[in-house]
Amino acid sequence: MALMTPEQFEESLKSLKPRVFMNGKKIENVLENRNTRTVVEANKASYEWALDPRYRDIMTCHSPLIGDVVNRYTHVSANTDDLVKKAQAGTFTAEMLGTCIYRCVGYDAFHSLAATCWEMDRDLGTEYYPRFIEYLKMVQRKDLSVAGALTEPRGKRSQKTIDWPDPFLSLKIVDKNKDGIFVRGAKINISGAFASHEMVVLPQAAHFQGEEDYAVAFAVPTDTKGITYVCQYSPYSAERDAADDMSELGNPRFGQRETSMVIFDNVFVPWDRVFHCGEYKYSVKFVTRFAKTHRMTCGGTCKVGFMNQIIGAARLVQEYKGLEKATHINDELMEMVVLRETGRACGLAAANKGAEEPEGSGVYLPDELMGNVAKLNICNAFWRVMALAGDIGGGLIVTMPSLKELNNPEVKDFVNEFYSFGSQEPTENIMKVHKLLQNWTAGQHGVATWHGAGPVMAQKIMLQRVVNYDHEKNLVKQTLNLK
Ligand SMILES: Cc1cc2nc3c(=O)[nH]c(=O)nc-3n(C[C@H](O)[C@H](O)[C@H](O)COP(=O)(O)OP(=O)(O)OC[C@H]3O[C@@H](n4cnc5c(N)ncnc54)[C@H](O)[C@@H]3O)c2cc1C
User: What number of other Cβ atoms are within 10 A of residue 375's Cβ?
Assistant: First the structure.
């Protein structure tokens, strides 16, 4: 069986030496730094669950490529059942982690790579598809964690890439030889790459004649020479750095969500890891196929899992406060459930209505319309759920003192008394649940949900492309018998 144990996963990361900076300092060991450790823990959990008989069906599947059981996050969907399982795995992983599924971008990028490499070979006679499949087999056999990188710093959005004074604001091929290519540029906001084994890189945008050097997709080990990670640093990072006890934090094991800018400074990529090189007309296909897959994930699966965490915490607070019979609170909880289920339904619809793309490729992608609707819907639904949880939680979500006060001999009795809500629940539990809600409602998740997989305008543009209104217009003409 091609599955690593969680211990083997951790061991395997020790042999990688990514160049990582956070808060102005070099991180010598991503396994030990408190913030990067949360990504190690999140990825490690995906290995735990794949081996757990309770979760095996969702977290693993059979790979026809290597004839063995593989982690689902390394599999390319070959039918709608696979897509539905993919959606369920997204929700399961997100609700268990309560933070980003760091392996999902790579998983979704695999779908785009398989479909588009196959199409380029068919149309152009290139040999990218077998190359990519060999790479994927290696990932499956070794059971590797793979991050995905598309988003670029970019220059003026009103200009074409080729017109930017700094040509490297989009990642670019700078040299080629018989062994491979050299690339320079950066990708930004990349989730969890420094604690993954591999990173797949896709174009961020459509490219045009003259922009051949920007039309590039490839895979690299995360510690390849020339790659540097400059990590995010938020108040939540500082809080984790300063904590005496991780149990004081809103998500003790898996943290908020960790991203970094990834700099490629003349990075060499051997040809057997290059999957797109100059065929500029196909860059947009990499992007749109990734987007439709990732929008199902972000819109209809992982946020459903996140909402379960928020709803669970809001319900506990309702009970602590003795508000079980408060009709408006029950109404708010029900609204949260409806928003969650609408998100789930869109994700499952995108999966169930998925189709082979391109025909004959054997690659199944989610439905464009429903995938985009899933993401667009969740952008607003998530803010609403945050607001409703904020109402139920009250001001304490943002005004609560440190949990350390529960051990401060000068005030601990007062804190225990006055934050108990007069309930039987230990005050420590009440404060921890509020801390979790702080993590969700006053943390990074609102903006992250909005922008991850593209801001709302990106979905609206895509929807405007796929909806033509012919059916609706014809219905009206038929009803009115218009000539
Ligand atoms: C927590 C988090 C994790 C992420 N993880 C990953 C990852 O693992 N891999 C990855 O590749 N990416 C990742 N991303 C990046 C994500 O896909 C982008 O943030 C998203 O696509 C938006 O891009 P941006 O952040 O550059 O915002 P912008 O593109 O700058 O958007 C800001 C505003 O400008 C508008 N705008 C942008 N361009 C135009 C234009 N040409 N014309 C008109 N309006 C425009 C947008 O509609 C929006 O209103 C992550 C993002 C977040 C927040």
Answer: 33
In this prediction, residue 2 carries a pLDDT of 84
Find out whether 256 and 436 touch, Cβ atoms under 8 Å.
Answer: no
Tokens of 12: 């395997």
Total of domains in the chain: 1
Helices and strands (H, E) in the chain, number of each type: 17, 14
Burial pattern 187-226, b for ≥16 Cβ within 10 A else e, equals bbbbbbbbbbbbbbbbbbbbbbeebbbbbbbbbbebbbee
Q: The domain containing residue 426 runs over which residues?
A: 286-480
CATH value at residue 331: 1.20.140.10
Instruction: Enter the pTM of the model.
Output: 0.97
Residue nearest to atom 41 of ligand 1 (CA): 157
Q: Cα(118) to centroid of ligand 1, in Å?
A: 28
pLDDT grade, residue 338 (50/70/90)?
Answer: very high
Distance 151 CA to ligand 1 centre (A): 7
Rounded CA separation 434/251 (Å) = 11
Residue 336 lies in a domain: yes
Ligand 1: which residues within 6 Å by Cβ? 105, 148-151, 157, 187, 189-191, 257, 259, 448, 451-455, 457
CA of 112 to the centre of ligand 1 (A): 19
Q: What is the pLDDT of residue 258?
A: 97
Q: Are 226 and 414 in contact (CB under 8 A)?
A: no
Closest ligand 1 atom to 147 CA: 8
